[in-house]
Amino acid sequence: MELRQLEYFVAVVEEANFTRAAERLHVAQPGVSAQIKRLERELGQELLDRGGRTVSMTEAGRAVLPHARSAIASVNSTRNVVDALTGLVRGSVSVGMVTACASADLTELLSRLHKKHPGLDISLSEDDSRNLLAGVLDGTFDIAVVGVAGDLPEGLESRVITDERLVAGVAANHELTQVSSLPFVELETRSVICLPKGILNDVVKPQK
User: Fold this and answer.
1) pLDDT tens digits, 98-127
2) How far apart are CA 109 and CA 196, in angstroms?
3) Left, alpha or beta for 125 (phi > 0: left; psi -120 to 50: alpha)?
C-alpha cells in the first residue's frame, strides 16, 4: 500500500469523478484509475462504485476513507515538523494581479519567493480590480495587486505600492487646457474614453 494510492482514493471520493481528481492531482486520469485498482486488489475489496454518473463509495470504501485521511494527515504532519526544524516553508499562495499592471514586477518578485521557499506552490492570475477584490473576499486569492480610487470593501486591508496620477487628455483647443487639475465630478457630464470598467476599481465613475 502506497501513500499516493490513498491520496488518489481520497481525491476521487471528494471530487466524485476520476477526471476531476486527476486534474486536481496534476496527473493523468489512467494513472489514478490504475493506482486505485491496485489498492483495491491489495485490500481484496472494491472501494468505489463506478456504475453511476458520479463515483461513489462502497461499504468498504466508507470504512477505509477515515483511515486514509488519517494516514495522509499523519504524513503531512511529519513533513511539517521536519520542515519547521530545517526552516523550509510549505503550502500554497494564490496571487491576483490587475490586468496590464506595470507598477509592480510581480513575476520577478514571485520568482524570488519561489527560489527562497521552493516548497511553496505559487499561482498567479490576471483579472480586473473588481473581480480580484471579490476573489480576495471569497478566498480565491490570498493577496492581490489592484488599482483603487476609493475605499476598499469591508473586510479587506491594503498597502500602497505606488500612487499614480490620472491624466485627462483633451484636444489642444479644448476649454480644459486652461486648468491644471480638475475633480472627477467635472467629467460627469462629458463624453469620455477611459479604462475598461473594473480595471481601476470605482474610478471610471466620476466621484465627488
Assistant:
1) 876 665 677 788 888 778 778 778 888 888
2) 27
3) beta
